[in-house]
Design brief:
Blueprint: E1 2-6, H1 11-22, E2 26-31, E3 41-44, H2 50-60, E4 64-67, H3 74-79, H4 81-102, E5 105-111, H5 133-151, E6 157-162, E7 165-166, H6 178-187, E8 192-195, E9 199-200, E10 203-204, H7 205-217, E11 226-229, E12 235-236, H8 237-248, E13 255-258, H9 278-283, H10 291-305
Parallel strand pairs: 1-2, 1-4, 2-3, 4-5, 5-6, 6-11, 7-10, 8-13
Antiparallel strand pairs: 9-12
C-alpha cells in the first residue's frame, strides 16, 4: 500500500511513518519541515499552500492518507482564529478533496477537544461542543471531511479522534511530550503543577500508529466514519504525573496538585474529555495498552536513548 502521512515531522506523525514503513508499506512523509530522520520518501507539504498539497499527492500517488498535520498550539489558536481555521479546517478540506480526486482513503486525526468536558466517557455519537479555538477548528475539519464524503459516497473516509498521546518526541523536535515535560521539570528542580480536575484517556503514540494502520487496511464496509482512539484508563493530569514520577523514581515533592480555577492559564479548558473506545476495541487486537504498560514501554525507550551512565539525570527522591 502507498501511504502519505502529513505532519510526519511531529510527535504522532513520525510514529505513524515508522509503523507503516516497518510493515512494508511504501510511505511518503510530508511536512513543512522534517525533524525526524526517515528512510522513506519525503515531500514538503504546507496546509496553507494548495499547490504543495497537490504536488505531494502527485508524488506519493497514495492509496491511503493519514492526515496528522495541524496547528495544535492552543495559545496560538486562541490568538489567531483565522490562521487556526485555515490550517485545521480549510487545509483538511483540501486534503479530503485531493483524496477524493485520487481515490485515496483518508484517516483524519482529530481530537478529544471537540467535547466540552461536561461528562465522562464520550462516545462517537455524542454531541460536540468545543470550549477552545483549537477544538472548534478541528471540529470544522471533521465537518469538512464529512461534507466531502457526502459528495463522494464511495470514498472511504474516517475521522479518528485522539486522546492525550504520550511517549517520546522524535529527535530534534522543538516540542516535548507530556512525559518529557515532567522529566525536564524534575531535572531542573522545578515544580510541576498538575490539574486534579482535568481528565483524559491517555494513549501511547505507538498504539495510535497501530490504530491508523488498522484503519487504513480495514475493508471499506467496516470502516467507521468516526472512531475514538484512546487508552483504557481515565486519569487526571495529577494522576498521570504521579505514575510518571513513580516509574522514573522522581522526587514527588516537585509535583504539586492544582485545580483549573487555581491557575490563571488564560485558556478555557475542558474538564473531562475521556473517550469511550468500544468501537476501537471491537476492531483492534491487541487493544491499546494500559497506562502502566505504556509508561513501562516509554521508560525502556527513554533508557535506551540516554548516553551511558546518564539515566539518572532526572532528580530522584
Amino acid at each position: 500500500m502507498r501511504v502519505l502521512v502529513t505532519g510526519a515531522g511531529g510527535f504522532v506523525g513520525s510514529r505513524i511513518v515508522s509503523r507503516f514503513a516497518a510493515a512494508g508499506h511504501t510511505v511518503t512523509a510530508a511536512a513543512r519541515s522534517l525533524h525526524a530522520l526517515f528512510s522513506v520518501s519525503t515531500v514538503t507539504l504546507d496546509l496553507l499552500d494548495p499547490a504543495s498539497i497537490t504536488a505531494a499527492f502527485v508524488a506519493a500517488r497514495p492509496d491511503a492518507v493519514v492526515h496528522a498535520a495541524a496547528l495544535a498550539d492552543l495559545g496560538k489558536c486562541e490568538s489567531n482564529l483565522q490562521l487556526a481555521n485555515r490550517v485545521n479546517a480549510d487545509g483538511t478540506a483540501l486534503i479530503a478533496d485531493r483524496c477524493r480526486e485520487h481515490g485515496a482513503r483518508l484517516i483524519y486525526l482529530s481530537t478529544d477537544q471537540v467535547f466540552d468536558g461536561a461528562a465522562p466517557w464520550r462516545r462517537e455519537t455524542d454531541d460536540t461542543n468545543p470550549v477552545q479555538v483549537y477544538g472548534q477548528t478541528k471540529l470544522n475539519g471533521e465537518q469538512a471531511v464529512l461534507a466531502e464524503a457526502v459528495v463522494a459516497p464511495n470514498a472511504a473516509f474516517c475521522i479518528a479522534r485522539l486522546a492525550l498521546v504520550y511517549g517520546l518526541a522524535p529527535p530534534g523536535s522543538p516540542k516535548l511530550s507530556a512525559v518529557e515535560q515532567i522529566l525536564a521539570a524534575a531535572s531542573a528542580g522545578e515544580t510541576a503543577r498538575l490539574f486534579t480536575d482535568e481528565y483524559r484517556t491517555p494513549i501511547h503514540a505507538d498504539d495510535v500508529a497501530a490504530a491508523c494502520e488498522l484503519l487504513a487496511l480495514l475493508p471499506a464496509e467496516r470502516l467507521p466514519p468516526i472512531i475514538h482512539v484512546a487508552g483504557p484508563d481515565r486519569l487526571s493530569r495529577w494522576e498521570l504525573g504521579q505514575l510518571i514520577a513513580e516509574r522514573w523514581r522522581l522526587d514527588t515533592s516537585l509535583l504539586e496538585p492544582a485545580l483549573q480555577a487555581d491557575l490563571k492559564v488564560g485558556l478555557p479548558r475542558a474538564k473531562d474529555v475521556s473517550l469511550d473506545t468500544s468501537i476501537l476495541r471491537g476492531l483492534m487486537s491487541p487493544a491499546p495498552r494500559s497506562i502502566k504498560e505504556g509508561l513501562d514501554a516509554v521508560h525502556r525507550e527513554w533508557v535506551a536513548s540516554q548516553p551511558r551512565g546518564q539515566t539518572g539525570s532526572a532528580r530522584t527522591s
